[in-house]
Amino acid sequence: MKKEKLSEGIRLSRKDILRVLLEAIVITLVLDYYFFSSLKALIVVLPAGYAYFRMRVKEVRKSKKNEASLQFKELMLLAATSQRAGYSVENAFINSFQDMKNLFGGKSYICRLIKRITVAKKNNMSISKIFIEEGENSRIDEIREFGYVYEIAYSHSGNMTQVMEKCASTFIEKLEIQDEINMALNERVFEMKIMSLMPFLIMSYIKLTNRGYFNVMYEETTGKIIMLMAMLVYVGSFLWSNKIVSIDV
Q1: Separation of alpha carbons 7 and 118, rounded Å
Q2: Given CB 3.0 to 4.6 Å as the disulfide criterion, which of 80, 147, 175, 179 pairs with 164?
Q3: What is the spatial distance between Cα 137 and Cα 6, in angstroms, rounded to a whole number?
Q4: Rounded to 5 degrees, what angle do the CA atoms 26, 29, 35 make?
Q5: Where are the beta strands (DSSP E) in the chain?
Q6: Is pTM, for the whole model, over 0.90?
Q7: Residue 9, SS3 per DSSP
Q8: How confident is the model over 175-211, as pLDDT tens digits?
Q9: For the chain, how far is it from start to end, CA to CA, in angstroms?
């Protein structure tokens, strides 16, 4: 299995894809058991499992994108500090590699970015273009915008230390806003998860206390149609509620 990519810089690992795939398989089997209780009905439930898979992949991508933004913010703060110590702009980024490796790991997004910057410097390439390209490929607006700001400030001999500190400050404000939103939504997300489990808990209780209670729904054509409609309503409600609580800043 090949690694899926969010971009050329931010990648979903095999472990990420496998974990989400296993989750989707379990969800598909659970839906089939409770709504149809027949392996033959898996063909009907598969689209719901696929929808869940796509939703979770999107969530993992978003999580990795947010993590990359945080790593880039830390890189700029550290590079700005190095500049105050007398390093050039390029060397300030390059010399931050070991610290970023200690913080986030050698295979992290930010370490791969620093390696690209190192290669660009050796080949006398524009560092600003690296940031712009990475921002566009990873769909992280902050990195792309910093690339443009860096290009303008560098070409006009601007104060790069101040530029990086200002950009990092902007990123911090955005991350704080996102954290406040997440804290406000945490209770609602918890309620959503509980409500999503309630139908299965109720059905499990009925199955245990009244064996055969749902047989008519699983065996009769009318019952199968009712259960299909119930599953569609449940899956639709789950996906819609998940979309509501997923807010981007």
Answers
A1: 20
A2: 80
A3: 8
A4: 135
A5: 4-5, 11-12
A6: no
A7: coil
A8: 778 778 777 777 788 888 888 899 999 999 998 888 8
A9: 33
